[in-house]
Amino acid sequence: MLLPFDYVRARSREEAVDLALRAGAGGRFLAGGTDLLVRIHDRQLRPKVVIDLKGIEGMQAINSCDGEGLVVGAATPLNRLIRDELVRSRYGLLAEAAHTVGSVQIRNRASLGGNISNASPAADTAPALLLYEAEILTWGPSGGRKILIGEFFKGPGATALGEGEFVFKVRLPILKERSFGVYLKLGRTRAVDLAIVSVAALALEGGEVRLALGAVAPTPIRVREAEAILRNRKDKEAIKEAAAAARRLAAPISDIRASREYRLEMTEVLTARAIEQALAGLAARAR
Amino acid sequence: MIHNIRVKVNGEWVEACVPSHRRLLDFLREDLDLIGAKEGCGGGECGACTVLVNGEPINACLMLAVEADGADVLTVEGLGDADGLDPVQEAFVENSALQCGYCIPGMIMSAKALLVRNPSPTREEVVEAISGNLCRCTGYARIVDAIMQAAEAARAAESSKVGGE
C-alpha cells in the first residue's frame, strides 16, 4: 500500500513543467518508477502529485540522426536500450552498463533518464555516459537547454536540474573512431545490487583511453589525470600508474556495502583490469 | 484522484475505477482477487509479484494500476487452459521445483517471458532471467532444471507439429 497522491499523465513537455511548478515541493516526475515508487513505499518521499512523463512524445524513442549520434528519450526502459542494435554496435559500453542494473523486471521499467536524474553516485549508466561525453537535453520553465554530462551531477541525489525541469533526452555524440568499452561492477551479488565500486574504460583507436568511476565519490567521476598517463604509453607500468592515479582521485565513503579502504583498494584493482580488457578488446576488434 | 482504467487481464478486458496510488499488485490481488502474484519486499528486489505487462516481466509492486491502462497483463492464473497446465507449470511440478511455493508464481512468469523471447536458453541465460526472483528455500537448482525442461518440451512439441504438417 502506498500513501495517497494524485497521478497525472502529462501530454506535453509544457504541461509537465506547468504541473511541476504548480505542485512545487510536493511534485515528483515519474518515468519508470523503480526508484520513485520504492521511496514512496518506504515513506522517504510523500509527494502530493506524481507527474508521469511517459506520455510525452519522444520520451521513449531512440533516434539516430546522421552526424549527430544517437538521441535516446529519457523514459526509454533500459531493456529497450540494451536490445537496440545501434546502441549495441556503436555504444556497447552503455548497453553493457545498463545490463547490470537491477533485474530483468527492473530493467523493463527503469529508464535512462531516471537513472541519472536520481543522481546516485552508483548509477550504473553514468560512467558510460561520462565516457561517451553525452549531452543531457532538458526541458524546463524557460524551454529546452543542454547540459554536458560532466556538469550534470552535483552530489549524491543532486543534479543541475532546476525547479520544474526534467531530462527530456540524452544525446550520445558520434564516435568517429573504432572503440571498445568495458564496465566492471563489483557488487555483493551479481544482480539486484548497487555497485560497491564500478569502473568504466573506453579505449579508442586513436590511442585515447577514457576512464570513469562509480560509487567512490559524491558523484560518478571521470578521471582525466589517470587517462593522461595512458596517452602515449600502454605498457604494464603505465596501466599500473593509471590505476594508482584513479585510486588517488577516488574519495569513497564507508557504508553498509563496504569500507572506504576496501573501495580504494578495489578502485585500483578494477581500473587496471578494465584498462587491460578495453585495450585487448580494441586490439581484437581491429584485427 | 480516481481514474477510470481499462486493462486486459488474462485475456479479458476489465474496466475499473482506481485511486492514483493503487499499485498494479493491489489492483490484481484485492480488486480482481488474483492472488497468484505475491507481495514479498514491496521494493522490486524479490520478484514475488512478477507479472507480464505487454509480454514483459515487471514487478507489479513498482507499477501503478493507472499506468497499466490499456495494457495487456498476464498473471499466473492466465496460464494453461481447461485441458491443463502450461508446459512451464507442468515442468515445475515434475521437477518438484518448489518448497514453500511463495516465489513460484513470479518464477514461472519470468520463465514464461524468457521462453517466449528465447526458446533455447542456456542454463546461464535461465539463471539471468530469474535473477530478479528470490527463492529463500534455496530451490534454484531444480527451478533451473524445470525451466530447461520446459524449453525442451516446447521445442519438441513445436518440431512434432512441423513434422506432422
Can you describe this structure?
Chain A has eleven helices and 14 strands. Chain A is α+β, with helices and mostly antiparallel strands and 287 residues long. Chain A folds into three domains: 6-52, Uridine Diphospho-n-acetylenolpyruvylglucosamine Reductase, domain 2 (2-Layer Sandwich); 62-172, 2-Layer Sandwich (Uridine Diphospho-n-acetylenolpyruvylglucosamine Reductase, domain 3); 179-286, Enolase-like, domain 1 (2-Layer Sandwich), CATH 3.30.390.50. In chain A, the strands form four sheets. A five-stranded antiparallel β-sheet of chain A has the order 4-5-10-6-7. In chain A, α5 (92-98) runs antiparallel to α8 (125-131) and α10 (236-249) packs across α11 (260-286). In chain A, 53% of the residues are buried. The model of chain A has no long low-confidence stretch (mean pLDDT 96). Chain B has two domains: 2-78, Beta-grasp domain (Ubiquitin-like (UB roll), Roll); 87-160, DNA polymerase, domain 1. Chain B has a five-stranded mixed β-sheet, with helices on one face. Chain B is globular and about 50 Å long. The A-B interface holds A 1-9, 33-34, 37-38, 40-42, 50, 52, 54, 79, 102-106, 108-109, 190-192 and B 1, 3, 19-23, 26, 42-45, 47, 50, 53, 56-59, 61-64, 66-67, 110, 113, 128-129, 131-133.
In a nutshell, what does this entry contain?
With 287 residues, chain A is α+β, with helices and mostly antiparallel strands. Chain A has helices at residues 13-23, 36-41, 78-83, 85-90, 92-98, 104-107, 112-117, 125-131, 224-229, 236-249, 260-286; strands at residues 6-9, 27-30, 49-52, 62-65, 69-73, 135-140, 143-148, 153-155, 158-159, 166-172, 179-186, 197-204, 209-214, 221-222. Chain A contains eleven helices and 14 strands.
